[in-house]
Amino acid sequence: MALVFQYGSNMSVVRINAADRLAGDAKPICVARTVETFELVFSVWSHSNECAAADLSPCSTGRNIYGVLYDVPDFLLTRATAKQRGRKSLDAIEGEGTNYVRTTIDLVTNDESPVRAITYLAKERKSDLTTSKAYVDHILAGLKEHNMPADYVQYVLAKIIENNRGLRTELPGVT
Q1: Would you list the domain boundaries of the chain?
Q2: What percent of the chain has pLDDT over 90?
Q3: Given a cut of 90, is residue 174 above it in pLDDT?
Q4: From CA 93, how far away is CA 18, in angstroms rounded?
Q5: Structure pTM?
Q6: 173 burial class (0-12, 13-18, 19+ CB within 10 angstroms)?
């Protein structure tokens, strides 16, 4: 099993485990946060979502980013090994090699245990992209589902609005 850190739309267990994704094989372990500081940005064009998708941009004035740590079967990581079993890989879902690069990241769990996990970071960031309500609804569902800290939820809402001001009136908890 591989430890995988999801900080965007795949924080939602329903989304990551949908039939067209990992089909129930991603097991949530716990909430974790990054050791390094980042800014949550929407800097990658997702063809499947038809909007800008989440990314973590290293930033010394940023903050620790929360997400969900999952156990994912090793064979579901790469396209080649998943294809052998007629499955879609996490690399394919994340657009590894096209939009994102699979990498490792240092995290701390809620009980302060250090852990290293796989995550996906943008291959190339673009600044002129806009996210959509449908996409951020998955992020918000994941935040709620995993009872993320209230100040972090407010941070994410602010980053969403910063990216797409048109969503200000459409999102819960935004004033």
Answers
A1: 2-167
A2: 95
A3: no
A4: 11
A5: 0.96
A6: exposed
Copy the structure tokens of residue 113.
């245990």
Euclidean distance between CA atoms 33 and 110, whole angstroms: 8
Q: Which long-range contacts (CB under 8 A, 24 or more apart) does 47-52 make?
A: 47/95, 49/9, 49/132, 49/134, 49/135, 50/132, 51/129, 51/130, 51/131, 51/132, 51/134, 51/135, 52/129, 52/130, 52/131, 52/135, 52/163
For residue 3, which of 122, 146, 102 has the smallest C-alpha distance?
A: 102
The pair of structure tokens assigned to 98 is 């096209």
CA distances in angstroms from 44 to 39, 49, 133, listed in the order given: 14, 11, 16
Instruction: Let me know if 69 is exposed, middle or buried by CB neighbors in 10 A (0-12, 13-18, 19+).
Output: buried
Task: Give me the sign of the Cα torsion angle 49, 52, 58, 61.
Answer: negative
Segment holding 82, helix H or strand E:
helix 79-83
Collapse the DSSP code of 142 into the 3-class scheme (helix H, G, I; strand E, B; otherwise coil) and give the result.
helix
DSSP classification of residue 40: E
Query: Which overall architecture, per CATH, does domain 2-167 show?
Result: Roll (3.10)
How does pLDDT run across 75-122, given as a tens digit for each residue? 999 999 999 999 999 999 999 999 999 999 999 999 999 999 999 999
